[in-house]
Amino acid sequence: APLRIQSDWAQALRKDEGEAWLSCHPPGKPTLYGSLTCQGIGLDGIPEVTASEGFIVNEINKKSIHVSCPKENVSSKFLAPYTTFSRIHTKSITCLDISSGGGLGVSSSADGSMKIWQASNGELRRVLEGHVFDVNCCRFFPSGLVVLSGGMDAQLKIWSAEDASCVVTFKGHKGGILDTAIVDRGKNVVSGSRDGTARLWDCGRSACLGVIADCGSSINGVAVGAADNSINLGSPEQMPSEREVGTESKMLLLAREDKKLQCLGLQSRQPLFLFIGSDAFNCCTFLSGFLLLAGTQDGNIYQLDVRNPRTPVQVIHRSGAPVMSLLSFRDGFIASQGDGSCFIVQQDLDYVIELTGADCDPVYKVATWEKQIYTCCRDGLVRRYQLSDL
Q1: Residue 107 belongs to what domain range?
Q2: pTM to 2 decimals?
């Protein structure tokens, strides 16, 4: 039963007698509504907050509050953004990533732009110009000095983060590119497109090494993961090109529009499984050498085991809003949805950590660096959260 809180609760509870609403949504039962009230601010700057009947405030500090609803036996920790960057883009931000060193961010927006910025303060560093139409996805290579992007123009581009030059353009897809994945250190990359194909590319020669899958349905999300030794990935029908680097012992996961989740050996191109979900799959990620997650348009998060994919390990459903992004994080994961919710599930915690701030606007993507989490949203804001604030 998910708990919800007013998106700007941290500001609302900073003043005397300030109030914020709370609600608990048990599946199949009426929603329970409540409120939080500030009784005053302590000397340490932390508000004294009480909850209305049916809810309990367990703990509060400047940026987080831990609330429970004993009747439904649920509790959540809500974390407010440490800082918000509003000047990077003017419209909805569709994708973002943070470099491996944590110094730079890259993001793409419905305003047609793709930008590189300082991760600490959101200050603009570079504008990456060259795609025609919208940029759907952007990510840093492991080096942190190079960016990979894919757009509605069916082009995949590689950019220098240092001088904003486009060093390589890959052409071959017949439809917009919706997601990408980088293999190992990045000599090869994978793209998934609206044309229904997933392709493997050689970055050094800017050539297509092959169509890994042709599924006749839009590929919304792709993920590459190292397979556990117990998984038989199959053998390639022909000798792989010597330009394929790091593809052996890797699995490729495809989140498809036709409600199917497809997994295959990246080098062998052999199928591992095809799982049918409740709705279109939007995103997917690997949690380990055999565990994976995939999210659907109707709000289901499937956890599957590659060794026995017929029955999900679990299905998490917190709301009917589309699952927009999934990211492996510590011993759990972070998920974001189309209703503005973004939450962290960790094995050792009996509560969920909710990243608040977005008010019903979809949170499209999440990126992390050490104890910092960045989100991008339809409201045009990048939010940065500090887990140390918990």
Answers
A1: 83-386
A2: 0.97
